[in-house]
Fold these 2 entries.
Entry 1:
Amino acid sequence: MPGSRILLVDDDSSLREILSTHLRKAGYEVVALGDPFDALESMRKERFDLLVTDIKMEGLDGLAILKAAREAHPGLPVIMITGHGTVESAVESMKRGAFDYVTKPVGRDEFLHIVGNALRLHTLEDENLRLRHELKEKYRFGQIIGKGESMMHVFSLMERVIEMDTTVLIRGESGTGKELVARALHYSGPRSKGPFVAVNCASVPDNLMESELFGHVRGAFTGAHRDREGKFQMADGGTLFLDEIGDLKPDLQAKLLRVLQEGEVEQLGEGIPRPVDVRVISATHRDLEELMRQGEFRDDLYYRISVYPIPLPPLRERRDDLSLLIQHFVDKYAGGRPARFSSETMELLRRYSWPGNVRELENVVERALILQKEGELGPDTLPPNIRGEGDGIYPGEIPGEGIDLEELEKELIRKALAKSGGNQTRAARYLGLTRPTLIYRMEKYGIR
């Protein structure tokens, strides 16, 4: 990278002068030394981004300098200069940690190309080390990671309510990490020794939801062959997380409200109130205010569950957090093997809009690491939609009077549904969305 500091060590004054000139013309800051012992002293006192050293020198050879550099600055890339008679030594230096080697006579273009590659690697490794340090020391709350202003605000909201039993409503698009926030609130607070029980209100069939929440006794309904505790009883002394609470049917909303008000549950088929000590945290990606206006969500329940709202921003509004999140998922899925995204790949990841949010990003990183086991992960490890393959999302020219983006989005959703025969999962796949995100947008635009 232009401006990088390079230490050049070679006792051949003419070659040292030629290489120094090439490097300075390319924009690098160069310290050129002919004495290898002076080079060792400079490495002890100064910081360099790259070391270039000849292998065969009087007094101290390049392998000894390489060894000293690896001990003093483990991440410093080293390029070896070798003659035809010392190629075997150059290969040995690669085994000992050198980045690459060049052979004499040294060609300008080849030399600068290798120097550029070494410095890019050094920059990426420095960034990875910095991100790992940040991940360990700060910018995280439980398993939630972020350093941007929006996530700092979320962390601040969470800290204020950790020690309380107040009901919390977490709001945000699918894939933003709502359950992670709920778990962080539970495991950081006074109920951490109690159970954390999660139930997705959108995934349980309507006819089973009451039993799921409140439990039942044997014979309460057809198929009830034994007594069964509900989620409220399982969460006694801890936290119950009601995900996608906006999907709960009105009759169950009334029963849930009663439990929240009275602190008691009645199992189906029994009718005896049983006290429960549960903190309730809810989450939704839906517009509850709009559902209330439509009569599909109870006002009194809304005010009961949303005493303390926490809004989560989508990933497209968290660009400052992208590198941290990517490093976190690389560390999670790489299994300890060296792996990193190239600068070109990182640029594609930064430009993408992430409709599936953090969940989509995690899947993309895991996929890339499956496709390429180690080393630098290139653009070919990314899905085609992120690589931007094709002629673009919008096939036509933008007319002079402009376009209505909402109408265009509605049209694309309708076309995807028509192409899929009404199958929402396939339609979501056509659009590069998750199914919950598609359903949310269909509801937003009134598309049935």
Note: The radius of gyration is 30 Å.
Entry 2:
Amino acid sequence: MSFLVATAFLVSGSIPANAANPGCIYTPTLDKTRAAPELSLGNFVTAKSWQWQPGSDAESASLSSLGAKVSVVSGNLRDITLGVLHMGIPRSQDLRVMTDSSPKTVAAINGDYFDGSGPWNAMVESGQVSYSPPGQTEVFGLTRKKVSEPYGYRSTGIMTIGTRKFALTGVNQLEPGPNSLVLYKSSFIRPVTPKGATTLLIKGGKLVKIYPKGATLSSKSGHVIQVKGTLAALAAKMKINSKVKFAIPVAPAYEERIAADTITTYGNVSSASNTLNIDSVNYTNLGPGATLFDSSFKDTPRAGRATLRIMPDATGKLIIKNIYKTGASIKVDNGGFIIQARSSLAASVANKFKVGDSVSVSRSYQAEGKSDFITAAGRGPRIVQGGKMIWICAQHNKEHRPRTAIGWNQDGQIWFVTSSRGLMAYDFGYRQGGSTSSQMAQWLLELGATDAILLDGGSSTALYIDHPEEGPRLKRIDIPDTSWVRDLANGFSIERKN
């Protein structure tokens, strides 16, 4: 039954031309006539693309006259995980080179907006802030979410109707995926369930009613099964009064999910008698207070008004080795830290430490939405939230450009999506073609995403896959692989779990 969690690239009919958002440009559907053959990349990850040719073909679809190609890679957190790619701060590098450092990578997409100082937003790796400018930053990534049955979770349970077995994909999920079979119990947090393509009502261990076109039912009416995607037609053919049994494992305490949030970094360096607060990590320009640098920073930090050099001793304790009371630009020792105090207040606190002091160094973040990130990096604005497009076209540029976005849903499905010209072109460093941001939002809704964000676009847009017939390096699919590339500050990856 593993096909139940594979990506569904089914087109569910045409999408209205943004009727609720009249400022948007019409969005053509991802119809079968324009689709290239789907590629299986292993671990139930798939890649697919749609192409509109330059000229009237693209113009009649309200796309760039230079042509448009929509490329999509999708997988599920049951089989893959989400990673962040970079070659150290503040270095920029070809995205394909970044993937070489991560052999589990199945697909990679460009990441955050950036400049010569590094990414615009924070990064979290293995649960710890690895980079952060001062203040609030917008991030997206993999979280550790505490499971609450009323709010739903992914499932590996089995439902048996008569003699036929079905793999459940979720329990009480608020937003089921496009190819799902979800059980709703009386514990569901809402009074009625979401609507599936087919709905089954089970009472007293028997299938008592089938809604072949789907229905929203009271969560107290019995066990409700909502089916979407490939199994909906089969579920509609089950026999009334068939016996139904469930074999559902105990709900996990936590599960991995995708989330977008706003975070603020904080931390400190503390001795027995002194504490210096930090407001940024590995940030080239230095924060307004004090900035922490560790050995993942590949350049020499700028000097602040005062500088602390911290190194571990033979027992692993962190010790103040040097204090530069007027600041110093020095590299970080392996396993050590450099603290650059930029403000006069932070410098006065830094200068209260003494050489030889034993210190502790902490860094963490506060997330507005309380997300517990395992891995995260910077993002652009949200374009889809709660199953609805939230991009206000009247407030934004409607230019057709290469775009990059990531979508996801509660079932753990994730979509890497790019729009580009799709063809080789001598464009002298300025990528053209592609789509509007609102068109990206509509395509993600069509694919089944309930939430989505934009990433850096234009010349940064890039999508690579571990092509099953080529290698050993990943192949670019948004435009021809021989096209010129732009060095990037970071990227996101879909990685094999095993």
Note: The chain has three domains: 2-121+379-496, 149-252, 265-366.
